[in-house]
C-alpha cells in the first residue's frame, strides 16, 4: 500500500527528518521518501 502525504511549507532537511521520525514512530518498517525542493501544488 502506498500513502502520499503533501506537506506544505517543508523548507529544509530538518523538516524531512521530523516527518520521517514521526512516521517511523508509528510504523518502524515504513519506507519514507521526502522532497523539500519540490513545491506542493
What's the end-to-end separation, in Å?
23 Å
Question: What can be said about the biggest beta sheet?
Answer: none
Mean pLDDT: 87
Helix fraction, binned, reads 25-40%
Q: Low-confidence stretches at least 5 residues in length (pLDDT < 50)?
A: none
The computed structural class is mainly alpha
Order of helices and strands: H
| Cα shape | globular
Strand percent estimate: under 5%
Give structural attributes.
single chain; 1 helix; mainly alpha; 0% strand; 41 residues
How would the blueprint of this fold be written?
Layout: H1 13-26
Task: Tell me briefly what this model is.
The chain is an all-alpha fold. It has one helix and no strands.
Provide a descriptive summary of the structure in words:
- The chain is mainly α.
- The chain contains one helix and no strands.
- It has one helix at residues 13-26.
- The longest helix has 14 residues, at 13-26.
- It starts with 12 loop residues before the first helix and ends in a 15-residue tail after the last helix.
